[in-house]
Amino acid sequence: MLSFRGTLRQQATHPVWGKYVTELLQNGIEKPKKGHDAGDHPPITPMKAATEGELDHDSWKLYDYITRNFIATVSPNCTYLQTTIYFEIGSEKFSCTGKVQVDPGFTTIMPWMQLGDDEEIPSLKKDEKLSVEEVKLIEKQTSPPDYLTESELISLMEKHGIGTDASIPVHINNICERNYVSIIPGRKLKPTPLGIVLVHGYQKIDVDLVLPTIRSSVEQQLALIALGKADFLEVKQHAIDIFHRKFRYFVDCITAMDELFEMTFSSLADSGRPLSRCGKCRRYMKFVQAKPSRLYCCSCDETFSLPQNGNIKLYKELKCPLDEFELVLWTTGAKGKTYPLCPYCYNNPPFNDMRKGMGCNECTHPTCSHAFAQNGVSECVECDNGVLVLDLTSGPKWRMACNKCSVVIHFFEGASKVSVKDESCDECGANVVEVAFKEGKSPLPESSSEHTGCVFCDAIFKPLIEKHHAVALRRTGGARVSRGGRGRGRGRGRGRGKPKDKMAQLAAYFV
């Protein structure tokens, strides 16, 4: 067992800190309040007294630090008086905190940790008034946190229960040798492009692979084995099962990692063209047409998947109200389907009843003008899960399309405006549609320029609709929308009627 007093006696005659150690032995040592015996090896401790003349420069710096740190761990606490002053300048409230040292304690042997003179504040009385000498307004920008030092990384690993005193240095050496990080002045660990891409790729596919939780959990189970509280074979099989499933999932999603590697280690000439603005940095993202097509933000170093087998273009520079990303438009042409989408929401569903791969025509946002809550007309006439959504970009050859299957209904060709109203049809439950034509170009009776009614039940509207199927439509990420009856546009809200029983009557108008 380590003897603190015996180790200190060896330092009592040291020319630098011998006097302090002698007084410490006379007054009594303080036992460290933190730390535990891991059982692997004793803490780093000075074995005997040494002077600067006995060691080379670097060796002496290391010895000096280790010895002072050891002595400080058994020294009294540093005590100080902290005072906080609250004051007002005009209508603005401020506070200022200062510290006055009472007893230096362990900082006597570690002077770099002592309180500075600039931390003291003058003695003031309550309600005392002072004059303002100067007011400055300095404009600055927020800066990112500094890189972790080796000691900070070790502290974080210990905090999360990762590694031991013997294995932690090996982990740090491994990430350096594998070129995930590089050592810069100040013993700081700067991530390399390879390390950044790997972390972003893991976050994109399986965030557990870069979080400390799994490794910490495994180490906790290993500790239980050492204490005889867990079975070795069961723990081993459990860990193998977890990592086997994660490996299979990672392999299935490896294209997401390939996209990041391609974007990071390819020249800018091969990285696509600027298309839409990122909602995070407000800079233009590049549209990469090479399959799988995607958007890439050079500033944030993030990729955003897009629906495939169609054309992508900017959608009127409109922005998603949730994240400020500019919307893009996916289309398969005049005989196909078209819908806008938010690149961020498409990859990170904002609501619980949404999944990855959903455009605005499936978004359940209750008030967004692009979501199907505002543009849904009725439930699909063929599939069980879809909603017929008005395509606001299709005019003057207006159409509505199912947000699940390939059904497309063309109607009101030549109309200047088509909009979905809040009212619903009393007969079938579909939402009422308002149509406006220019004067002299209206197919409505008596050359009326406007009419409002149900697409499926209104006698005037029936001859103006045709049902088709979208050409070359291939959806990615088949997502379902919850149909729990939660207001318009969801389940039996927006377009709550399903006029399948009317399709036989309307067959003459459909091709």
Q: What's a concise summary of this model?
A:
The protein has helices at residues 4-9, 18-27, 57-73, 150-159, 168-177, 193-205, 213-226, 232-252, 254-264, 343-347, 372-375; strands at residues 79-89, 92-103, 181-184, 188-191, 273-277, 284-288, 294-297, 302-305, 311-319, 326-331, 338-341, 376-379, 387-390, 399-402, 407-411, 417-424, 431-436, 450-453, 465-469.
Portion of residues in helices? 10-25%
- Coarse shape: elongated
Low-confidence stretches: 473-496, 500-511
Strand order of the largest sheet: 12-13-14-15-19
Mean of pLDDT: 84
Largest sheet: 5 strands, antiparallel
The fraction of residues in strands falls at: 15-25%
Distance between the termini: 91 Å
Radius of gyration: 35 Å
Let me know the number of strands. Answer: 19
Structural class: alpha+beta
> Helix-strand pattern, N to C?
HHHEEHHEEHHHHEEEEEEEHHEEEEEEEE
Structure annotation, total helices: 11
Write the layout of secondary structure elements.
Elements: H1 4-9, H2 18-27, H3 57-73, E1 79-89, E2 92-103, H4 150-159, H5 168-177, E3 181-184, E4 188-191, H6 193-205, H7 213-226, H8 232-252, H9 254-264, E5 273-277, E6 284-288, E7 294-297, E8 302-305, E9 311-319, E10 326-331, E11 338-341, H10 343-347, H11 372-375, E12 376-379, E13 387-390, E14 399-402, E15 407-411, E16 417-424, E17 431-436, E18 450-453, E19 465-469
Antiparallel strand pairs: 1-2, 3-4, 5-6, 6-7, 7-8, 9-10, 10-11, 12-13, 13-14, 14-15, 15-19, 16-17, 17-18
